Every structure is written in C-alpha cells, then in structure tokens.
Amino acid sequence: MSELLAPAGNIEALDAAIGEGADAVYLGLKSFNARLRSSNFAWNQFEAAVSSLHRQNKKIYVTVNTVSEERDLERLYRFLSYLNKIGPDGLIVQDLGVIRMCQEFFPKLELHGSTQMNVESAAGVNLLSKAELKRVVVARELGLEEIKYIKSHTNAELEIFVHGALCVSESGLCLFSSFLGGKSANRGMCTQACRRFYTVDSERDGEKQGYYFSPCDLQLIEQIPELMQLGVESFKIEGRMKSAEYVGSVVAAYRYLMDNWEKDKKGSLATAKRLLSTDFARAKTSYWYNFKTNEEGVKKAGNLILNPNQAGGTGIYLGKIDKFEQASDEAIARAKEAAGKDAKPEDYRIAMAHLSGGNYDPDIGDSIRLHRQDDTGRVSHKVRTVMTDEDGKRFIDVPVGFKRGDSVYLLQTKAMSKRYPRVLPADIGKYRQQPGAEVLPVLDLTPVAKNELSYFPEGLYIQVSTIGDLHTAISKNPVRVILEFNSETRTDLLEKKVSLPVSKKQVIISLDPYCPASKEEQLLSDLTELIAEGYKTFVVNNIGHISMLRTKGANLIAGPYLYTFNRWAASWYENQNIGAFITPLENSWENLKMTWEENVRDRVLVTAYAYPALFRMRFALPETYDFLYFMDKEEKIFKVNSTVDGSVVMPEEPFSIVDKVETLNSSGFKRILLDFSRTHVTRQELKMVTNAMIKRQPVPETSRFNWKDGFYSPEKIEIYKAMNEKAELEKNNRHVQNRYSKGGKKRRR
After folding, report:
1. Is 164 left (phi over 0), alpha (psi -120 to 50) or beta?
2. For the range 487-496, what are the long-range contacts, defined as Cβ-Cβ under 8 Å and sequence gap of 24 or more?
3. 134, 156 in Cβ contact below 8 A?
4. What is the largest CA-CA distance in the chain?
5. R_g of the chain, CA atoms, integer Å
6. pLDDT digits (tens, 9 = 90+) for 693-741
C-alpha cells in the first residue's frame, strides 16, 4: 500500500493531516529546510510530535533540504546529532555534505533524497541508493512513462508529488530569487520571483503585461490508481505554507480514493474530486504525466502549466481594498483573543479594510490572501473580526502594511474548517531536548597528487554552446575549451563528425544539469560514443551523470549544479572519484576561501564571467510567447531562450568578477572560467572581457551576484542593524559630549 504523505507547516496542519488519515507527515524545524517562511516547529513541539505519532503508528520526516555553507557546518552537525537522539523516521536531504556527515557520524538516520537534488533518472536514483539512501523524491517534471522506467530499474523507494504548487523551474536548478537579492531557493528563502507580473515586448502585440512564468498547480488525483499499481511507495502533497483547512481537504480526497478505488474506481474518483472542489488555489494541471515521449512533452507542456492571465497568487477574487477604518476596541480584543494567550502585540495588530469589486463577503474564520498592488509581496491571513460602519459598509481585519488598491483572494471558508483531535499532548513540558554543543571533527580534503590533474591545467577556460563559438573562443588561447552538449553540438560531434580547430584533449564536454529518464538510454549511448571518439573529460552537472561515467575511465569535473558549498559535499564527490570542481554560481568569496584551503585550491575552477541560467524550464514556451525579453517592475531586463532542449531565462546583465582574477590567482585559485553558454560569443565581447581581466577593471553593467555579500541572512541583517544602531548611538553620545565640552569651556571663561 502506498503511503500518503502530508505537509505539516504548523501544529494545526499536523492535526488536520493526521485527522484526515495521512500515513506520514513531513515538517521543518527552525533551520536547514526549504520553507523557512512557514511557521515550522519548536524543539519541544517536534519531540512531542515524534512521540505522539509513533504511538499512532504514523511516520514523521524532517526536511533538511537546503545547501549549507562552510560557516553552517558546526550548527548542522549539532542539529543532526539532535535528530539522531529524537529519532524521526527519515530526513529529506539536498546537500551531499549532509549525506557524507550522516555516513560518518549518524549511520542510523534514514535518508531520503529531496526533489531539490534534481534526480529524474534511474542512474541518479541508483547512485543515491548505493550511498544508502532508502528513498528518493524524484523531480516534479517527470511523466508516468518515466516513473515506470525508473521504478523498473531500481530497488530504492520512490516518492512523488501528486498535489500542490509547482516550480516553473526544473527541480533544484533555480537561481532567480538568489540572483535578485541573495534569497536562494537552495537555502529555503525563495521569494517566488517567477510568479511576479512582467512586461514583455511581443512581436505581434507590442508591449503587454502578464504573469508569464507563474505555473498552475499540480493535481494527479486521476493518476493515483495507476501509480499505486505501479508500486510507487509514497504520494506527497505539497503545502507546508498552506492552511490547516487546505491540508485537511486535500488529504481527505486522496485518502478516500486510495482506500476505495479498487472497489469502485469511477465512484471513488468522483467523490475525491468533490472533496477537492474546495481547493481554491490556482488552475490545476497534470503537467507531464500524459506525454509518451520527451519530444511531445517539450512541445506541449508549456500550454498545460502556464497562463499569463493567471495571477501569481491563489484563490477566488474578493476585490480590492478601497477604504480603511480605525479598529474598534472590540475588534482589537477579538483579534487578540484569536491570536492566543501567548501572542505578542505584533501578532494581533490589525487594520480594518473594506473590499470592493468581489461577489463574496469574507467572514470570521475564512482564510484570505492579500496581494500588494506593486507585486512586492503576498500574505495569507485568517479573518478574526468583522465590523460594520454607520453606512452599513463591512470591514474585515487585515495585516498592517497593506494599502488601498491591494487585491484580496479567498483561500478557504470557515464552513470548510473542521476541528481535529490534537496530535500533541496538552502538556509538552517534559520534552526538553535541544541541539547541544558538540564540536564537529575536522575534515581535510585530499591535496592534489603529482600528475593527478593533468586534464585540469592552470589558466583560462572558456565555455561555449556551439562549434561556431568554439572557433571564436580559441582566439584567446584558453588552456581548455568547455563545450556544452546539447541537440546542436550532439549532431555536430556524433552525426556530422565536424572537425574541431583544437585537439579533443583540449575540449571538455559539459553535460546538461537535467537528465530525465526518457533520455537516459540515449545519453548513455552518446557518452560511450564520445569517449570512443577521444573525448575524455566531462563536466557532470547531475548525479545521474556520475553513475553513467564512473566505470568508463573518463575524467570527471563536478559542475556548478553539483552544489559544493562546503567541504563535506566536496568530500562526498571525492569518494565518487571526482577530483576537480567548478564552484557554484551562487557562491561568495568568503565561503569559497573557507571551503577550499590553500593546499586544495588546485582542484577548483572559479567562474569569473557568465550569463547565469536563472531558471530552466523543461518545455519550449508556447507559441503565444512571441518575445525574447521581459522586464520586471524595477525595469530589470531578462532574456528567455526557448529551444528543442527546453527554455532558459537569463539576465541581460551578466555576472562578472573579472577584475578580481588577480586576487583569485594570488590566493591560489589559478583556474578561471569565462562562461558564454547559451549566448552567441562575439570577438568584441570576448576582447572586452579579457582586457578587463588583464587590466583588473570591472566590466560595466554587470552583477556581482552573491560574490561580495553572500546569501541573504536574517541573522546577518540583525547584526548589521545592531551595528548601525550602536554606531548611531555612539555618534549621538559624541555629539552630546561635544556640546557639553563646548559649554564647559564657555563657563570656564
């Protein structure tokens, strides 16, 4: 029997999930999880939840599905040690450093590979299975035929998403939010930039606006019987930021179908769909599930998942805020009571708003979502109080900070709410364990042995996407040229046998980070042929690539999508016989130095110039997307490139640290990459970039990405704020002292 796995973003959602019959829940604690903006669980609440659920023969999984920088490792080690003591049923992990650390110190912890690991092939699942991961959450962009293929070629358990929000990007490969402000999806801080309102320059209609990259929600209720027969071990509902009412209704629908489809498939499916009719989220899609081939999916999936007229948020439109009133004492008292006895003043601070333009008046207990007119944010809220003014206008409480013109949507009505038995005991005082003060043992990476990296010399590397651009690249005499392996270069290299202007030993083949099951056998055949043709060195960007190449005598370089933000992750790849690394594009200078000590920096290739793939879509864009550029509200310009290999969004403004190359070289990072992937390389641009590198000058109109400031960190912001406040206080004190000193001099006269 397949497991029904539900989200528990807070205690109420936990109660709803278990109350409606979920077999297991997944939740996050206050750190190291990909939903840091959800409520998450305190230590004692989590410990109590593990104890209570185990008594009910239910399972509980903890999300540890973010990447960790070197500075995080001590805290990560203590966190894993704590989890090892509490004993959840599994950890959902992304960072290979977590796997390496658990292998070394906590082998009893059961590990599940997160969808953020970007696993969509049997080769990838099997590599993780050999690393003793029991289960893999495969990428959300897979079809039924691909899941069948993976299931028939592995013994590992498979977990798939069946309902809830989708990422428009291929799983684990989105850099968009991080590029815009350091809030990385790989760090649990995604700002959902893809769901924003954009302006495009259409070839047919001129300038127009829409939610061009805000995807529909996944709903696979009709596919559940077939997936159960296939033997998929776990069906996962997305929604750790959703309300308890949402979790309860979705769990109820899937539970009913899973329990009754064999007796009455048609009737049970109809009942399950009725139960789902209260899900007022976005339009639903089965996405890739009905496509028989990769080519069919690439051509048609865009129309199934994208709708520019669909707002980035969810729910039934209730209208716009057109008026505010001062909250009455009674309204404030009701809001305070609803917030709970332990609430802080900011938890029940409210504004009273009147809505116009909708057809439903929200009531106390209804769940709503507010959208700022300038698209800077969305907030979910449960209505706690209602009041009517002298003219009979109805006002509801909304969070402070919204303005006239902001839109409001209905997510759930009170009538859909249920009261569920509490999972946690009334008294959780006896649950007192917390992470301790353990010291992480030192891990040293392996220094480079003599002649070990002959395929990885010091000097300049240039990466391109076509044979034509390779001809341009060699004009700067790079020590190696990295050639992207795509549909065009595959034809040139393997079918047309195009001759290259350099030795094959000087060419490194870079593999695409998305490696779906439908292309797995063809890719394996292509790699075998490439090696036979004399190509010996490959940049691997997916763990499936490692599995395909590990026995073929090839030289493997871990690419930027095999995230090595810490030495424990690098160590895991070392154990897979990978000796060289391209640092992730999101990385910072400080973290780069901390991860790679001076005696191992010969292993690292640092990207100094690139047009980062901000997000990748597995499909070609619909024909109606007749534009090349789009612009956000800050007038930042982005470029979208749609091909038979899928679509990629890039910034018009490239990432550049070419003026820092001398500093990198003097610090021991003597391998530098200029990455022109997915762009046409002109001699003029190449000359401009290399001249700036030689002269140590910044390239105009470029971005530093996270190079200087690193990932966004709430803790860092608080430190900066405290430092500024301290500096301001000292300034004021000096000002007062100066005035006193001057006054004293006057008196002495």
Report:
1. left
2. 487/643, 487/644, 487/645, 489/465, 490/526, 492/467, 493/530, 493/533, 493/535, 494/526, 494/529, 494/530, 494/533
3. yes
4. 103
5. 27
6. 999 999 999 999 999 999 998 666 556 566 676 777 777 777 666 665 6
